[in-house]
Specification:
The complex is a heterodimer of chains A (156) and B (355). Chain A is of the alpha/beta class and 156 residues long. Chain A has six helices and eight strands; from the N terminus they run H-E-H-E-E-E-E-H-H-E-H-E-H-E. Chain A has a single domain, classed as Periplasmic binding protein-like II (D-Maltodextrin-Binding Protein, domain 2), CATH 3.40.190.10. Chain A starts with a helix and ends with a strand. Chain B has a 16-stranded antiparallel barrel. In chain B, strands 8-9 form a two-stranded antiparallel sheet. The chains are: A alpha/beta (156), B mainly beta (355).
């Protein structure tokens, strides 16, 4: 029993589409949220718990330099993922918690950067500064280094 | 204080805040943060007794100025309230950070319970317009010392992601004249102020998260000569809790208050209990619906409560808050209140913001 030419063409088309999908999926790099700092910083590793504390305003000193968290507000998705996966709070809860700590304890709130270029400039210029950005963003930045993966998109 | 004193106080405060705001740019490890909380509010009362001393309506506006600065391990914190009813330096503290602890000297919030140190004059931060009456400010018929001046030590220790914290205050408390009068930092020699001690211990299931449970005890010696007493020795003890999820928040506290009212010939001892529970629900990112129940027990013949006839002993309230634009809040609040000689309804509306 032989197949009709039309069915063969359809099957061939499906096979081609599947191959393209599999191929493109394999080539797509995993999207990861990274903890970043200046390439000159003497920071080697920070645990997620340390990152959470630093971004909640808790002082932490490494090599006699106080770490300074910078919020990457240029990418709302990155901020949402960061708050949910590392801080374990919604944006509203996080803002209120920071405000509460400032108001009660005099702690400093992390500055927000809505412009990516300004964020990178601050990371390069401010000793001890830390922030987060997507892995593909870091590829285009010179002078910054990754301190580790904060979160990876499991769908990729 | 008379009006001239207020003007001098206002001037000093303005100079202090201006000098902070316009100080040279931070150098090295110095950092600063400034917050402004403006508000405009109105309050309408209905069902007042004929001989009530309360007004049918009240309008208020003002701004709460807050500044904090840090240089290495040295800290500064100041809060100045400028409103239609009051101009006062609410907090002025200099501090030193040692590890996980902070040592403060100055005038600060009495860490008695949860609400007083969590919200205080920044009404933007508290969802409701009103405070529970048991933690009402001294100038608003408050029963308890909300401000102390002296030494405050506070800190938190981490153990397996849990937080165990404390706050210890060794300070001077208020004097009782026609209301409780905390020490005025601009006129420290005025009035008579005695010992105030507070210890607050708390537990955070996840350290630095909003949920917190604690207990506290306070002892204050309150001179009250103008009320016919040499001194009132007050002990406050209680528990509190604050639990939060994405959409819900529950805050509550219980107070036991024991007073020894001393004259040269006798000591009268009375006690009462009070508590409140506030629930908040966020149906979406902008709206918050809230309600609160407050109740006092043993208040009927309490000699200390009799000195505060306008104090609200029982209250049920509900309200809604809209957070709009960028850090603006519009709040409506309805309540049913019972004071010593008055029962009345209250409708409040307020705009708050933060810059």
């Amino acid at each position: 029993m032989c197949m009709k030419p039309a069915r063969i063409r359809t099957l061939f088309l499906y096979l081609c589409l599947s191959a393209i999908c599999i191929s493109s999926a394999a080539q797509t790099p995993q999207r990861s949220l990274l903890l970043v700092c200046s390439g000159n910083a003497k920071i080697e590793h920070l645990s997620h718990a340390d990152v959470r504390k630093i971004f909640l305003g808790v002082p932490m000193i490494i090599d006699q330099v106080r770490l300074k968290p910078l919020l990457n507000a240029s990418d709302p998705l990155a901020t949402d993922v960061f708050l949910q996966q590392i801080i374990f709070m919604s944006k509203r809860q996080y803002e209120r918690q920071l405000l509460s700590r400032t108001f009660r304890l005099g702690d400093q709130r992390p500055p927000e950067y809505e412009d990516n270029d300004m964020l990178v400039r601050a990371l390069l210029d401010t000793p001890g500064s830390l922030s987060y950005m997507w892995s593909e963003q870091l590829e285009y930045q010179t002078g910054l280094k990754s301190l580790g993966v904060l979160w990876t998109d499991s769908k990729n | 204080m008379d009006h001239n004193d207020y003007r001098v106080g206002f001037l000093y405060g303005l100079i202090a805040v201006t000098s902070i705001l316009y100080s040279p740019p931070s150098q090295g490890e110095s950092t600063s943060d400034y917050l402004l909380f403006p508000h405009i509010g109105a309050s309408f009362l209905s069902g007042l007794a004929d001989d009530s001393s309360l007004d049918n309506d009240d309008y208020n506006y003002g701004v709460d100025l807050f500044a904090t600065s840090e240089f290495k391990n040295f800290l500064f914190l100041g809060e100045l309230l400028l409103s239609a009813d009051e101009q006062e330096i609410e907090r002025i503290q200099v501090g030193w950070r040692v590890g996980d602890s902070k040592f403060w000297l100055g005038r600060f919030h009495n860490p008695v319970g949860y609400w007083n140190s969590q919200f205080h004059h920044g009404s933007y931060m508290q969802t409701s317009i009103s405070r529970p009456s048991i933690v009402e400010f001294e100038e608003n018929n408050g029963l308890l010392p909300m401000h102390l001046t002296g030494l405050l030590i506070e800190g938190i220790k981490e153990h397996d992601t849990h937080g165990f914290g404390y706050a210890l205050a060794v300070a001077t408390g208020p004097e009782l004249s026609d209301q409780l009068e905390p020490l005025d930092v601009l006129e420290p020699a005025s009035g008579s102020h005695e010992l105030g001690l507070t210890l607050n211990l708390f537990y955070e299931p996840v350290i630095y998260s909003p949920s917190r449970y604690g207990l506290y005890i306070n002892y204050t010696e309150i001179p009250a000569v103008s009320n016919g007493f040499d001194e009132i020795r007050q002990i406050i003890a209680g528990v509190y809790g604050n639990w939060e999820s994405q959409r819900w928040r529950l805050t509550g506290s219980a107070f036991y208050v024991r007073n020894e009212l001393q004259t040269t010939t006798e000591i009268q001892t009375d006690s009462f209990s009070s508590g409140y529970v506030q629930a908040e629900y966020i149906p979406n990112g902008r709206w918050t619906i809230f309600g609160r129940v407050e109740s006092t027990f043993g208040d009927a013949n309490d000699a200390y409560l009799a000195l505060f006839p306008q104090h609200v002993n029982d209250r049920i309230l509900g309200g809604v808050r809209l957070d709009a634009f960028d850090r603006h809040a519009f709040t409506l609040e309805f309540s049913d209140n019972r004071a010593r000689g008055d029962s009345y309804g209250q409708f409040m509306l307020q705009w708050d913001a933060m810059f």
